[in-house]
Write a structure and sequence with these properties.
The structure holds 2 protein chains of 2 kinds. Chain A is mostly beta strands. Chain A folds into 2 domains: 2-97, Carboxypeptidase-like, regulatory domain (Immunoglobulin-like, Sandwich); 126-264 and 306-379 and 414-777 and 817-846 and 904-983, Maltoporin, Chain A (Beta Barrel), CATH 2.40.170.20. Chain A is 7% helix and 48% strand. In chain A, the strands form 12 sheets. Chain A has a 22-stranded antiparallel barrel. In chain A, a hairpin with a 3-residue loop joins strand 26 (542-565) and strand 27 (569-580). The longest helix of chain A has 14 residues, at 270-283. Chain A is globular. Chain B is mainly alpha-helical. Helix content of chain B is 49%, strand content 6%. Chain B has a two-stranded antiparallel sheet with strand order 2-4. In chain B, strands 3-7 form a two-stranded antiparallel sheet. A two-stranded antiparallel ribbon of chain B has the order 5-6. Chain B is globular. Classes of the chains: A mainly beta, B mainly alpha. At the A-B interface, strand 21, strand 22, strand 23, helix 8 and strand 24 of A face helix 1, helix 2, helix 3, strand 1 and helix 4 of B. Strand 30 of chain A pairs antiparallel with strand 1 (45-47) of chain B, so a sheet runs across the interface.
């Protein structure tokens, strides 16, 4: 879209300058379907003259001589050049650009033809991600782009997503990519302030995926360095749809469906629970506690809290314009009900994208998004008050209620039914992301663009636990209200100049950007409510409040030069200098350069005679990027915070000073190749990269005898290296109308910690260990070798070789959550109006810690329920199993047996859809220009050996040093839905 | 096309382009103000340089001392639980296996609660070191102010080193030879001095004694028992000398405290826990709705708004109930769903129970023990019976030193049940390996403390990882 605007501007700029000889006219249509194409750029080769086709595809252009050549360019279509000759009427039919080499890709602060790109950028287009019921756009990247790993942490609607571009490149600072929407770097961190479990919410869900025209993933340093100190984790550029010249186009999309749990908790029924408890007691020499297990009742707790959730989405947009004004206005409403009762996500968004050209040479416009959404939340993911957690723990041989009507309760855990029914947790977000810009072209090719942007979020959260809950019962109800305001403003100026001399073309830019971010949080809590009917803090007898605030700022200058000689030899040089408020005066500024080189071999004479080979390009880049995100705003300072003692105000040290703190830097080398074959029907892109992160912003573990836990220091090194490729092909394009296209991408990343101050363990029970030579997310457990078939005793590896097992020392890293490879495989088939799409997504070699089993395979050492896996316990001489005899010794409290670490590899039919598009004649007869109906399903088939609810889960997402651990986490739902898309 | 017309009417091109120019110019001007965004200051906190700079700051830092002590990682709940669960009083019946490990004498190096206590105690020490370093230089503070600040800081540092030493070091003559790392200056940066090795056990206790003598000297006697006072320093000295075997001094300091008019046995045992800051207390941590202790939450069942992860051992409940006249036996509840008893000493809704660190009853029992050790059996029995009488039970008159000591030690267990004394008293008196035997548990078979080296806890794994000078305790190597 941007390219269209660019070209229209280009054309308008030339009006009035043109010499006048004669006028040619014509019509542009699509080779596929024959429909008129509006907005096609028609330029006179070698001059600044040009125009765009109107809504019916018609155009007029003045030409000066018959030797002129008309160049037709349009996004998504192959460029066509035609000599004018003596013709005055042109019927031009453009072929779709199956060749990714002809597409225009969005780059940081600009756009570029893929052919002259020296960097590694993957584009994901709207068509690939439309009509998929994902609440957030980052989820849609899963399996779509080589080099990008996406894990959906849970099935919580609007919940967090784990996104890594070319691996995890930081330990304590953030490894999440930078998201830039229409040029605005947006806030993408969890803003929820509630402490309700290990899960997080995803602010990217504020954006309506249907507004997205394309997502570009910038991967190597040549692509990202223009974002300097924020680029080390890669950048995702999201470009929203904009208006084009032509009559108003109204698009309506609607889908409806439902969501179900793929699996429910596998726990023992009442009689089995009692039999197992009896067996454990007898094994330990105690009397059996249950006299007659056979008569035990069974309460199926899961059935009481799971449900089939509804899914509903409506999108409406209108776009159009003329040469002076272009507009795109859209609205969205989405409802996604979770598979657990009371969990849901409702979103309404409105977008207005405008572009004015009040006079030639000047363009002004806006991109405005307003989003309101509301989440019904649950305590989940390692939360003892959560309904899902209770479902695993509550014995099935007891009823929901006691005889007096009160809830039956066991120690520690909330009754699952009460957890859902008696607590209310809500999160409401108001978000505004807006930018206004003006762009002036001084002379042809020389432009200055200024923009102001604002990204504002207001998050209101409420919690109420009535007097029937564990948390509320002692205090007659408990409530919390939390208000979080996050405000980012950004001002940018970019001066760009594009020119050609001889066979060389240059596009250069220089720019400045300033961003300030402030966050404030107000929290009030209340206890002692007059009755369960009062839920607002105002009614509480005891009220407390806190407020906090923080801020950061960054100011930068940046520059880029793209040079190509004859579209054959390519060079890109980037440099950015950033200043950050987070670092001390001595190290406040950092400079981040990169260089990229490309060689289009197919432009050389010696390769031009091979008809099958359309494009062959090799490219390489090297650059340095920085990272400052994820650390606290005032990490460099020695700080004292409030430390009240009852009614007395107090202070105490909270942080040691490190005035030398500076950016974490990542040096990345990339070598890539792009190949197009057979009339561009087969495209291959492959890259090898090596990324080394130095001066890690590492929370160096201190001797606690200093009074501090950590000091954030620039210490340590981490590397990621890997190989990634994407292949896409138009396998069948038959005259009969059958088409079949397919694409496959795979990413292989290897992560290694090169240098640390000292090894350290992470999370309760030290289940992750970080050490030199190890990887991120490495599980640290007692390697269990088996169970003695004779005695049923648990057996472990003697790690330190001292001849005996010792729980503290015979422990080592037994695997990591990092996959060997991830990828996606898509197929699109169409025939006479029918279309079929199926998309597989896979991950291989990642280990998944099934931590629910740690608690549910307790062998009788807890009074809570068992998982079904406990049934495989050793019982008799000769039994071969990994589950030991149920005795206290085999299930001792300090053991961390490795048997809970399972293979998390999976392949999933992520999406399948079947659609039918009405013939255009029929559509027109019902006053539509197009209409498509479809049915689709998500996550309906997963191949995995993992025994938990979902191999993708991470129940501890709020701790960025953990990954791949199921911890009473809601699984992703299976979805079935039907929808319709019409345009008028 | 209608939209276009409408727009033209509202925003004529002529105005729009002027706006455009103005906009770009403003943008360029804006850039020049870039440097301002790099100057951000913390809102929630102040920097080192503006922390303890005047009398007010010193007083705030003094409150900060108690804020560290009262944290749930320390006296708020964790430190009391560590002692009582490791003994035969409390048991772990829930999922928080860090307390289950203590209950079973299987404390892992990475035990979260063990680490929480260790780190928090050193935070208290660093806070004290800061105040000790800064107080003498406060221009607007009187000598009396400075003495109070320094005295309280010395007391808190002594208490933290005492607790660290008895948990990780041991008791001279019973278990352990190594103490804990000693740091006496505030941490401002990381250098070679930030990696101290463990001092010897004797040197660690000597540090506690030195600090307490300083505190005793600097602090005044006061009826404010929510902060450290001369009486509190003396009371802790009395306890310290029982650990180091200096019984004469233990008795001497107990006598000094008993003689102080600010303290008297609360006639009602249950009132000690109902009424905050009663005369019973020598040093008591104060809590309110904004600043909660968390110990009730651990013991009270879920149906009463607790977590219910911990309970009393049924055998201990039966022992406390054995004499029906004993008021202390009434401070238990029964959780029917789990079939266990739980202590109700800490029972205030909202977890605002105060924590009693030193109370006058302890001085009677300390003196009783010291007198018995020095063969003043009559005096010992007299002190013992003062405490028994208040609890509503009959006076006793055992004969022979061993029997007198046994009666005193038994009384300590009953009197200070669930107040964090139990395990330490068993270890201190050399009874741990004989008393902590076949303790019944709800979940699993009975447990015994059989390995002598497990009378102390492991140095946390993070400390051993971060400081290569730290030697791990033998039983955990």
């Amino acid at each position: 879209m941007k390219s269209r605007l660019f070209f229209s501007l280009f054309c308008l700029a030339s009006i009035g300058l043109a010499a006048q000889d004669r006028t040619v006219s014509g019509k542009v249509t699509s080779q596929e379907g024959g429909g008129a194409l509006s907005g096609v750029s028609i330029a006179l080769k070698g001059s600044a003259k040009g125009t765009v086709s109107d809504a019916s595809g018609n155009f007029q252009l003045k030409v000066s001589s018959s030797s002129d050549t008309l160049v037709f360019e349009f996004v998504g279509f192959q460029k066509q050049e035609i000599g004018v000759g003596n013709r005055s009427l042109f019927e031009i039919s453009l072929a779709p650009a199956f060749n990714s080499m002809t597409e225009v890709v969005v780059t940081g602060y600009g756009q570029q033809n893929r052919k002259t790109l020296t960097s590694a950028i993957t584009s994901v287009k709207a068509a690939e991600i439309s009509n998929i019921p994902a609440s957030s756009s980052d989820q849609l990247l899963q399996g779509r782009a080589a080099g990008v790993q996406v894990n959906t942490n849970s099935g919580t609607p609007g919940g967090g997503v784990f996104v890594r571009i070319r691996g995890t490149s930081s330990i304590n600072a953030s490894s999440d990519p930078l998201y830039v929407i229409d040029g605005v770097p947006v806030q993408s961190n969890n803003l929820s302030g509630l402490s309700i479990g290990g899960g997080i919410t995803n602010p990217m869900a504020d954006i309506n995926p249907a507004d997205i025209e394309s997502m570009e993933i910038l991967k190597d340093a040549s692509a990202t360095a223009i974002y300097g100190a924020r680029a080390a984790n890669g950048v995702v550029l999201i470009t929203t749809k904009r208006g084009a010249s032509g009559k108003a186009k109204i698009a309506l999309g609607f889908y409806y469906g439902n969501q179900k749990a793929p699996k429910k908790p596998g726990v023992t029924d009442g009689p089995t629970f009692e039999r197992l408890m009896n067996e454990a007691a007898v094994n330990d020499g105690k009397p059996a506690p249950y006299g007659n297990p056979d008569t035990a009742i069974t309460t199926n707790w899961a059935d009481l809290i799971f449900r089939t959730g509804a899914l509903r989405n409506v999108d409406l947009s209108i776009s159009g314009g003329n040469e002076k004004v272009k507009y795109m206005v859209s609205g969205n409403n989405m409802l996604q009900e979770g598979i657990l009762k009371k969990s849901d996500f409702v979103r309404s968004t409105g977008r207005v994208n405008l572009d004015f050209t009040p006079i030639e040479k000047l363009k002004i416009g806006t991109s405005l998004l307003y989003s309101y959404n509301k989440r019904g939340r649950l305590r989940n993911d390692d939360n003892i008050s959560g309904g899902l957690e209770g479902t695993f723990f509550y014995p099935t041989d007891r009823g929901v209620y006691n005889a007096d009507g009160s809830y039956f309760k066991i120690p520690t855990f909330e009754n699952p039914v009460a957890a859902i029914a008696e607590s209310d947790l809500a999160m409401m977000t108001n978000r505004f992301v807006g930018s206004i810009y003006a762009e002036y072209e001084f002379i042809h090719g020389l432009k200055l663009k200024s923009s102001y942007s604002l990204d504002y979020s207001n998050v209101e959260e409420t919690v109420y636990d009535n007097s029937k809950t564990n948390g509320g019962s002692a205090v007659n109800g408990r409530a919390q209200a939390l208000s979080t305001n996050n405000n980012n403003w950004i001002q940018e100026n970019v001066l760009s100049y594009n020119f050609k001399f001889g066979k060389s073309s240059v596009s250069a830019l220089v720019g400045t950007t300033v961003q300030k971010s402030t966050t404030s949080v107000i929290s009030v809590t209340g206890t002692q409510f007059p009755s369960d009917d009062f839920k607002e803090v105002t009614a509480a007898a005891i009220q407390t409040a806190t407020t906090t605030g923080t801020s950061w700022g960054i100011g930068s200058v940046f520059s880029r030069v793209n040079y190509d000689y004859d579209r054959k030899y390519l060079l890109t040089v980037n440099v950015r200098r950033d200043g950050s408020s987070r670092f001390g005066k001595a190290n406040q500024y950092g400079t981040f350069p990169s260089v990229g080189l490309g060689w289009v071999l197919t432009e050389e004479k010696f390769l031009q005679d091979i008809p099958a080979l359309n494009t062959l390009k090799i490219r390489g880049s090297y650059g340095i990027t920085g990272n400052q995100s994820g650390i606290k705003d005032f990490q460099a300072l020695g700080l004292w915070g409030g430390a009240a003692y009852a009614d007395l105000p107090g202070i105490s040290p909270t942080q040691l000073a490190n005035p030398n703190l500076k950016w974490e830097t990542t040096k990345q080398t990339d070598i890539g190749i792009d190949i197009s074959l057979f009339q561009n029907r087969l495209n291959i892109t492959a890259d090898y990269y090596y990324k080394k992160t130095q001066d890690l912003l590492l929370d160096v573990s201190l001797p606690r005898s200093t009074g501090f836990n950590v000091l954030t220091q620039n210490y340590g090194e981490l590397e990621n290296k890997g190989f990634e490729f994407g292949i896409s092909g138009d396998i069948v394009r038959s005259k009969s109308g059958l088409t079949w296209s397919t694409s496959l991408n795979m990413s292989f990343n290897r992560n290694k910690i090169l240098k640390l101050a000292a090894p350290f363990n992470v999370y309760n029970r030290d289940i992750y260990r970080y050490q030199e030579g190890g990887q991120m997310f490495s599980f640290y457990l007692n390697p269990q070798t088996g169970v003695d078939p004779k005695t049923g005793a648990i057996q472990f590896e003697d790690v330190n070789g001292d001849g005996q097992f010792d729980v503290n020392n015979d422990r080592r890293i037994v695997g990591t959550a990092n996959p060997n490879f991830t990828g996606g495989f898509t197929n699109n088939l169409s025939f006479k109006g029918f279309d079929l799409m199926f998309f597989f997504q896979f991950s291989q070699g990642n280990k998944q810690l099934h931590w629910n089993r740690f608690f549910q395979e307790h062998g009788g050492t807890r009074s809570t329920n068992f998982s079904l896996s406990q049934l495989d316990r050793w019982q008799n001489d000769g039994d071969i199993t990994m589950i030991p005899k149920m005795t206290a010794a085999n299930y001792a409290s300090d053991l961390r047996p490795s048997r809970f670490l399972e293979d998390g590899s999976y392949m999933r039919l992520k999406n399948i859809s079947l659609g039918y598009t009405l013939p255009s004649s029929l559509a027109r007869s019902i006053k539509m220009s197009s209409a498509r109906i479809y049915v689709s399903a998500q996550n309906i088939w997963t191949i995995t050996n993992y025994t938990g609810l979902d191999p993708e889960l991470t129940g501890t997402a709020s701790n960025a040093l953990t990954q791949g651990i199921e911890f009473y986490t809601m699984p992703q739902p299976k979805t079935i839905m039907a929808g319709i898309n019409v345009t008028f | 096309m209608k939209t276009v017309t409408a727009t033209k009417a509202v925003l004529p091109s002529a105005s729009l382009y002027k706006l455009g120019y103005a906009f770009i110019m403003a943008g360029l001007v804006f850039t020049t103000s870039c440097n301002k965004v790099l100057d951000q200051s913390p809102q929630n906190e102040v920097q080192d340089a503006s922390s303890i700079t005047n009398r007010k700051g010193g007083i705030a830092a003094m409150a900060g001392l108690y804020n560290e002590l009262q944290n749930s990682n320390y006296y708020g709940s964790n430190f009391l639980i560590i002692s009582d669960v490791s003994s035969n009083q409390g048991q772990s019946i829930g999922t928080w296996d860090f307390y289950r490990e203590m209950d079973n004498y299987q404390v892992s190096l990475g035990n979260t609660e063990n680490g929480n206590f260790y780190a928090r105690a050193y935070r208290a020490i660093n806070q004290a070191n800061n105040l000790i370093a800064a107080a003498p230089g406060l221009a607007d503070a009187s000598d009396a102010d400075k003495n109070k600040m320094m005295g309280q800081a010395y007391f808190v540092r002594a208490l933290a080193y005492f607790d660290l030493t008895r948990l990780y070091g041991g008791v001279p003559g019973v278990v352990g030879a190594l103490g804990v790392p000693i740091t006496l200056t505030p941490s401002r940066q990381i250098d070679e001095s930030s990696f101290p090795p463990r001092a010897t056990l004797d040197a660690s206790y000597k540090q506690v004694e030195d600090d307490l003598l300083q505190a005793e000297n600097l602090l005044l006697s006061t009826a404010d028992r929510s902060q450290a006072s001369k009486g509190a320093a003396r009371a802790l000295l009395s306890r310290l000398y029982l650990y180091t075997g200096n019984f004469a001094k233990a008795a001497e300091y107990a006598t000094l405290v008993i003689g102080e008019a600010n303290y008297a046995l609360n006639p009602s045992y249950t009132d000690i826990f109902l009424t905050k800051l009663s005369t019973e207390s020598i040093f008591e941590l104060n809590y309110n709705a904004a600043d909660v202790s968390n110990i009730r939450n651990w013991y009270f069942p879920t149906s009463s708004g607790g977590r219910g992860d911990l309970a009393a051992h049924t055998s201990f409940y039966e022992k406390a109930k054995a004499d029906p006249k004993d008021i202390r036996g009434t401070l238990f509840g029964f959780a029917a769903s789990a079939g266990i008893y739980y202590p109700t000493k800490y029972n205030k809704a909202g977890n605002i129970d105060n924590i009693h660190i030193l109370r006058i009853a302890e001085m009677y029992l300390n003196r009783a023990e010291a007198r018995a050790k020095t063969n003043d059996l009559t005096g010992a029995i007299a002190d013992l019976n003062v405490v028994r009488k208040r609890a509503g039970v009959d006076e006793v008159n055992p004969s022979g030193q061993a029997a007198v000591l046994a009666a005193i030690w038994n009384e300590q267990q009953l009197e200070f049940a669930f107040e964090g004394h139990s395990f330490f008293d068993y270890v201190r008196t050399g009874q741990a390996l004989t008393q902590l035997v076949n303790v019944e548990r709800k979940n699993g078979p009975p447990v015994s403390l059989t390995i002598p080296g497990r009378q102390v806890f492991p140095m946390p794994s993070f400390e051993v990882d971060a400081n290569s000078n730290i030697e791990q305790n033998e039983a955990y190597q």
